[in-house]
C-alpha cells in the first residue's frame, strides 16, 4: 500500500495521475522478475509509463541518460521543478497568434520532478539494485510542444467543456439565471422560461453552399471562374433554393430567407450571383462579399502526417480569420421577451399553437413562418467542414474526414435554446449524376 501511494504521488507530480496504476504494475512486475532471476529490470534501466488520455504528454522515462544525475540519496531534493502546462483562456483574443482556443501555452521546458525519499525508494526498486546515478527524465521541450508529433500543441483546439458535453454558452448568448438577471420582473421558474424560449423564440437556419466547379489551372483568383459545368450546377441550386423560398403548399410552406452571403473569391461570387438569378423571386438581399469566408486551412486535420513548417504557418494565418467568421454567423437568435405573469404565458401558448397550425393568409397566399429565419452562405469546402464541426461541437481536426461536393447544401439549425443540429451534410439531391463533382473529380469513381 505504501508503494502504491508513493507511486500515485509521483505520477501526480509529473502530470500523469492516470498512469499511477501502470507505475505500480511496473514496480511489482520488476520486483517479481528480480526475485525470480535476480536480473535488473532492463539493460538500460528504463521504465515506460503509457498514459491513457489523449492529451497526456509522451511517456516518461526513468533513465540514466539525463545530463544531470543526482545520486539516489539526493533524490529527495531533486534540483528542478517541472514547469507545468497552463491552459490559455478560451477567449480568441487571448491567443498570441490570434487563433481562438488553440491549445495551451508552449512555455513548457525540460526539468526534473521533486520527489520524496519514500518515492525514491520506489524508484530504486523499479530501476534495480544498482546504485548508479539516475534521474526522472521528462519529455524534451520539443516533445512537450508537439501534439503526438503531428503539429504544435498550441494549435490543438481545446473545447471549453470536455467532449462530449454540450457547451450551452458556445455563442455567449446563454441567458443568465433568473435570480441573477437584474432586469427580470417575471414570476416564471427556470424550467418555465426554457419552455417559453423554446416555443416563442426564433429558430435560425443556416444553409452553407459550396461554390460550383471552377477552373483550377490559374493561380490568379480573378481567372479561377466557374466551368460551364459549374454554372449549370449553380443554376440547379438556385432553382432548388427558389422552391424553399416560394413554398409548395400550406404543408410545405415558404422559407423566410433573409439574406445571401458570399465569400470574396471569384468562384463563390459567381456562384452566388447565378443562384440569386435563378431563385425566381427578388426578395432576397445579397450581402456584400466577406473575405472572412474565403477559403483557407481552418486547422490541422487528423488523421494526417507530421505538419510541415509551411503548413503550421498557414494554419496560424488562416485559423483566426475562419474562426472569426464562424462566430460572426453562427449564434442563436435574440431571446423573446418574457411574460410578466403566468396567465400571459398560458394565453400565449394557446395563441401560438393556433397561429402556427397554418401559414396561409386570408387571401390564400403562402406566407413564411414568423419564427424561422434562413440565411444562405456561399463559400468553400474547408470553411464549410470546419463550420460543421464547430457548430456541432465536434473536434474541428476531423474536418477533412467529411466531403462536400460542388454546389452541395449543408444545412444546420440553431434553436433559440442554443442547441444545434444538422439536417443536411453535402446534399446534392438537386443535381443529376452528370453534374456531380468534387473539384475536378467527376462522378463518384475517384
Short description:
With 446 residues, the chain is α/β, with parallel strands linked by helices.
What does this entry look like structurally?
By secondary structure, the chain is of the alpha/beta class. It folds into 2 domains: 154 residues, no CATH class; 225 residues, Rossmann fold, CATH 3.40.50. It has a 6-stranded mixed β-sheet. Strands 1-2-3 form a 3-stranded antiparallel β-sheet, covered by helices on one side. Strands 4-5 form a two-stranded antiparallel ribbon. Helix 1 packs across helix 2, helix 2 crosses helix 3 and helix 6 crosses helix 7. It is flat. The termini are far apart. About 27% of the residues have low confidence. This is Serine/threonine-protein phosphatase PGAM5, mitochondrial. InterPro entries: His_Pase_superF_clade-1, His_PPase_superfam, Mito_Ser/Thr_phosphatase. GO terms for molecular function: hydrolase activity. Belongs to the phosphoglycerate mutase family. BPG-dependent PGAM subfamily. It comes from Cyclotella atomus.
Keywords:
alpha/beta, three-stranded antiparallel beta sheet, single chain, 13 strands, Rossmann fold, six-stranded mixed beta sheet, 2 domains, 10 helices, 446 residues
